[in-house]
Amino acid sequence: MADGTAISCQEVVEVVTDYLEGKLSPEEVAIFEAHLAICDGCQHYLDQIRITIATVGRIEDEEVPAELRDTVLAAFRHRRM
Description:
81 residues; 4 helices
């Protein structure tokens, strides 16, 4: 995360999965949650992610056909450019 005292909205998006999976350190959680406390947009984004997970459930890597996984990953790689 950024300088240890604050994070940007982009960084929230980048670590939201780690946050939800409990992979952040206590210090990182505190920084993440401090940002959420002052940023309605990121709080809304987190809420959307939680709703998506609750609605769709959890899909394990083994459950996704290789061709579909490759297609989705290629689409995201292309989008970054």
